[in-house]
Amino acid sequence: MKDTDAAAVGRAPEPETFTNRKLIRPTLPREHGRSEPGRGEQAAERRERMGAPMRKSPPPDVTHAENFYYQKQMQSKTPMVVVLHDGEQVHGTIEWYDKSSIKLNRAGGQSNLLIYKSCIKYMYKQSEDNGRR
Length: 133
Known about the structure:
- The chain is of the alpha+beta class.
- Helices cover 25% and strands 22% of the residues.
- It has helices at 2-10, 39-50, 65-76; strands spanning 80-84, 89-97, 101-105, 113-116, 120-125.
């Protein structure tokens, strides 16, 4: 046993030669009795053959709807009513916003406010104030 080990260790490894190798894929049996698949069914069938599970893609995390709403209200300088969690209502126009807060400009000599979004219960346009009080 020692002679074979010594001979195996003493030999230089043969250099590997890289050649084009053909990829061999097994042919999978098709389901019989199905009608001609549509485009969506062809993609699903292709995913099944590849072994990938069929799943719907999840909805996007960020839709930018909030940003669009704030931009629209800022550009038109819409008078807004912001209702806080404690029930207090603050009237003014939105000057700017960021990820965690909005700045509300108030009319009539009142001071402007920086309001954290986490403190806001909801907000609406002041023109839609019919019967909310």
